Amino acid sequence: MGKAKKILVATNHLAEIGGSELYTYDLIKALNVRPDVEVEYFTFNKGLISDKIEEELHTPFMNKKRYDLIFANHNSSVKELFSKAPIIQICHGTVPELEQPSPLADYHVAISDEISDHLLNMGYANDVILNGIDVQAKKPVRPLNNTLQSVLSLCQSDKANAKLKAICRAKGLHFQAYNKQENPTVSIEQKINLFDLVVGIGRSIYDAMACGRPSLIYDHRGYNGNKADGYLRPENFSKYVQMNCSGRYLNRQYQEKELIRELEKYNPEDGRKLRNIALAQLNAYKMVNQLLNIEQQLNWRNRFNKWKRFTENTRLVKHAYFYKKLYTFTKSEYFNR
């Protein structure tokens, strides 16, 4: 066997539970299985998830000067780690500032077609690689009821949870909500497996699919508004995932009447089908292979495009090449602007 490839996985923050944080954890776990890579991680903000990475995955914080490849989740990480290795920036959204593509990255990955189009419109070539889920840890452990008996909400909105709670009370359904801002739980798969159906968007839906749970795509978040794609029929996954199962594909607004209608579509057979889709398309262990193959995109054409970006972003390039080193030496804030 040849020399192990040195990989650094970076993200802006790992202090709390969130989509990019759990993506980072599952990515590192999947990389660690491979005998041909050696993994470390980087973040500006340590905490709950970085502790899990160190204690459970035995993956150390960055301690090398150079790496063979860096996977970075946010543009702040790209800027900080520039010159340590070729950097693949993984973009998880179109709106947040941290998710915007960095000119300093060598190549970009989008986790949905919607984000890919956003990057292309900004002039950044990219590949689409869907969210990776640890399908070995997140799996069905309890059979579903033939009729709907319980609903788990992973919505991050008091408005959404209030509607769902009222509906479930009226229908005699057991209901529980987990909001990462109010009552976060790290091993969400343990909670998911206690319920028949899961409501949420994005990675919450993917976790539910991996656990073989029928799902309803809906939330009422501040940045997204009241958005729903509705009950997830397995044959519709390929459409909804284009927009990261965010509710923006059908772009519907749901009130109590629509939510009741969608809950009544519950079919336990869909759980098995959704699990199979997760195994085929959301498997973190397959995602790692795809990400490592991105190195093939680091060719002369890509280097030329990167040089053109440098000429259009001279201030950022100066900071990365020169000012950062001067700031480290002098500690003068003039060089850290």
Summarize the entry for a quick read.
The protein folds into two domains: 141 residues, Rossmann fold; 132 residues, Rossmann fold (3-Layer(aba) Sandwich). The model has no long low-confidence stretch (mean pLDDT 91).
How would you describe this structure in keywords?
337 residues; six-stranded parallel sheet; five-stranded mixed sheet; alpha/beta; Rossmann fold; 2 domains
Any overview of this molecule?
With 337 residues, this protein is an alpha/beta fold. The chain folds into two domains: 141 residues, Glycogen Phosphorylase B (Rossmann fold, 3-Layer(aba) Sandwich), CATH 3.40.50; 132 residues, Rossmann fold, CATH 3.40.50. Helix content is 39%, strand content 16%. It has 13 helices and eleven strands. The strands form two sheets. A six-stranded parallel sheet has the order 2-1-3-4-5-6, sandwiched between helices. The chain has a five-stranded mixed sheet with strand order 8-7-9-10-11, sandwiched between helices. A hairpin with a 3-residue loop joins strand 10 and strand 11. Helix 1 runs parallel beside helix 2, helix 1 packs across helix 11 and helix 7 crosses helix 10. The longest helix has 17 residues. The chain is globular, with a radius of gyration of 21 Å. The N and C termini lie far apart (45 Å). The mean pLDDT is 91.
